[in-house]
Amino acid sequence: AQRVTQPEKLLSVFKGAPVELKCNYSYSGSPELFWYVQYSRQRLQLLLRHISRESIKGFTADLNKGETSFHLKKPFAQEEDSAMYYCALRAREYGNKLVFGAGTILRVKS
Amino acid sequence: DAGVIQSPRHEVTEMGQEVTLRCKPISGHDYLFWYRQTMMRGLELLIYFNNNVPIDDSGMPEDRFSAKMPNASFSTLKIQPSEPRDSAVYFCASSFGTGSGPLEQFFGPGTRLTVL
Asked: How far apart are CA B11 and CA B79, in angstroms?
């Protein structure tokens, strides 16, 4: 069963438009959720984690336990946001290892 | 620290050949992970080690894949024999850990494998 679902393989938006990268998960307990990002020719790196409740590069993500979602949002997309984004879950039941979604490519057009 | 180091960065080989991918984790990290990235399946965990011991290899696709970690600063992922469907980017990552498990993972640059 897919534990982390990112329904969009590709999301294309114009510069300045709002962005929402969707992530849904399957877990009945209290998982930790993360967003990882891979910019062109760079390493995969942690963008943000839900327990930090922080905004990184203008991105935020709120854990919605009722909808089992952890969507990544940014009000105004910038060209440098173009990258591959992975949602990931960590839970004790899964040995505390990261379980990644399939990823979403974000393309921000000028 | 140069971060996680992987070699080679690119590998092109023919079907049936043996392929060995190498990884040097960040010094002091006690967890090491091997992932495979494809367009169809995204990022999949193949195997991970804690203190050089394999903990979970349930993601290893089949017996053609094997991984070793002979010491804290080196790991290999071997595919023998390789097949075209093994073509992917293979990432290594490492992290510190606590009693609850691994903390933030730091990824290497990946090895792009093409099997013809």
From this structure: 12
Residue carrying the six token digits 């011991």? B53
Partner-chain contact A96 B100, CB within 8 Å: yes
* CA-closest candidate to residue B43, choices A84, A15, A20, A79: A84
For residues B26 and B66, give the distance between their C-alpha atoms in angstroms, rounded to a whole number: 22
Tokens of A94: 């899964």
H helix runs in B4-101, sequence order? none
Instruction: Give dist(CA B45, CA A98) in Å, integer.
Output: 8
pLDDT mean across residues, chain A: 91
Distance separating alpha carbons of residues A90 and B33, to the nearest angstrom: 14
Chain A residues near residue B56 by CB distance under 8 angstroms: 95, 97
Average pLDDT over residues A60-70: 92
Name every chain A residue with its beta carbon within 8 A of the beta carbon of B101.
Answer: 90, 92, 95-97
**Facing A102 at nearest CB: one of B42, B45, B48:** B42
Region at B42 (left for phi over 0; alpha for psi -120 to 50; beta for the rest): left
Which has the closest alpha carbon to A26: A45, A57, A1, A56?
A1
Residue of B nearest to A92 (CA): B100
Sign of CA dihedral B13, B17, B20, B21: positive
Tell me what pLDDT residue B99 has. Answer: 77
